[in-house]
Amino acid sequence: MAGIKEAIKSVLTKARKKSELEKMGMAEGKSLSSYSLSYDAPSSVLEPIYFWILDFIQEMGITDITKVTDNFTSSPGSGHFAEMGMRATRMQEEGMKILGMVNQVIKTVLNLIYDLKEFEIRLGHYEDARSADKEKKEAGVLSLKQIWLDQVDIKRGRGSIHQMAYEGGFTTLREAFMVANSIDDIKKMSGNEGVINEQVKRILIPRMAEFLKWKEFSEKELRKRFEIEKSYLKTEVESLKLYTSWVRPYLKAAEELRQKGFEKNPALVHAFNTAMFELVLFVKKEINFKSAVQAKNLPPGFANYTPKRKYYSCGVISLVFRGFPQKVTQQHYGFGGNVDIKFDSYALNDEEIAMINKELEKEDVAESLGFIQEATDLSLKELEEDIGHFLNKERHEEKKIKSDEPQNPFSALFKFFKIKKKEKKISDAKEIKKDNFIEQALRKLAAEKAVDNLYSVYDIYKKSHGMASSREAFR
After folding, report:
1. pLDDT confidence of 417, banded at 50, 70, 90?
2. Exposure winner among 10, 126, 187, 219, fewest CB in 10 A?
3. How many angstroms separate the Cα of 388 from the Cα of each of 237, 288, 394, 467?
4. What is the pLDDT of residues 286-344, one digit of tens each?
5. Same-domain check for residues 448 and 319
6. For residue 472, is it within any domain?
């Protein structure tokens, strides 16, 4: 996996020309200064080295610290390998158990949405049947009659209207039922007009009465069930979000316990009791433009200028541990051995840092955890329109009521004159603009601070641990 140094190099070489990088002191995307330190402590643990550096950086006033890499690998023959493998397996099992529940809830949500759509279509027929529009009302009543014939009356078997019309010779029975809207209509049909005979009339009158009762009661029951299933859908969606929040820590822990990063390293021999770690910190501190002008670190003529981009003194601190795990307690290990520390300094602006973070995010998405974390979000996104249609209906109605209330005309006037600023986001490193004259001076100051800060960490660490050091900073 490419690290942050490679990401910085990639962004700088895309955004800047070779001559610009040389002028900045970062030719070919390399660091402004670089120091290395190798420390061997086989009889003591290695954790204090990391925490000394971390605490010292914070004491210098640099609080923006990001851990960009945290990899480890143990040799298969070590007890540490078995211990970490057991923990990872436990996290995977718990994660998969909850994922199974997530899948069940998604299936339930899908079925509920399908049912609610069916209910909504059916309820639309009832609303059409009460419409003032004659054509719309007729279409609604005919739809309900068809549903009653297909789902209710059909249960009579050979006594149903369908069967009697097709097999019993009552050819006018079905058509008369579809035309009539009341018992009085049936009586009229059998009167002077003689559209239907008395036998058909005797069959249709009780069927029409039954249909009218079914129409009234079925709508009430359907609306009741519609509201119940909407409430159930809301519960299931909240459960889905809850299960998702539960599963992510387990999957994240399982991924973090996955051993990676040193597969081809010759120091990692399978039969040895060896462990290797890699930690990379990215530290940055913003250059305060106004304070720099007041302190005369920048020319006084810059006082009336406001820079559009922020510039940072940045540092990358890489620690590679190689040691042998020793069981200190029943559940904890201590690590003694060798550590190689590298310090690299950079001067970067906020646009370059944003693109560097984007490069690192691409690598994170490629990891095995990426698609798992997005699985439930993707499922919800696909169903978002349907879920929102049923669950947000009441909210929309509330907003509509509020919007109908009288509003302050002056507030509307102020809204009219309010100008929204559109921030242009850079999608590619090639879109980063060249530094102007003032920004060049600001970057130069950021570079000086970055070199000084990083050398201070390197130099004071050596002095505090009784190592030889230099009186002056060197690169």
Report:
1. very low
2. 187
3. 11, 46, 10, 65
4. 999 888 888 888 888 888 888 889 999 999 999 888 877 766 666 666 676 788 899 99
5. yes
6. no
Phi, psi of 336 (to 5 degrees): -110, 150
The answer to whether the CB of 165 falls within 8 A of the CB of 171 is yes
Report yes or no on 424 lying in a domain. no
| Same domain as 71, residue 100 | no
* Long-range Cβ contacts of 140-148 (<8 Å, 24+ apart): 141/181, 142/178, 144/215, 145/177, 145/178, 145/211, 147/122, 148/211, 148/214, 148/215
Same domain, 70 and 115: no
C-alpha torsion 326→328→332→336, nearest 10:
-40
161 shares its domain with 104: yes
Which tokens go with 213? 């009762």
Using an 8 Å Cβ cutoff, are 390 and 228 in contact? Answer: no
pLDDT digits (tens, 9 = 90+) for 232-257: 888 888 888 788 778 777 777 777 67
Residue 380 lies in a domain: no
Asked whether residue 160 is domain-assigned, the answer is yes
Region 13-20 average pLDDT: 87
Range of the domain at 13: 4-75+270-368+438-464
- In this predicted model, what pLDDT tens digit does every residue of 155-180 receive, in sequence order? 888 888 888 888 777 888 888 888 88
CA 22 to chain centre: 40
Residue carrying the six token digits 């002077």:
192
Query: DSSP for 46-91?
Result: SHHHHHHHHHHHHHTT--EEEEEEEEEEE-TTSHHHHHHHHHHHHH
224 and 291 co-located in one domain: no
79 — pLDDT class (breaks 50, 70, 90): low
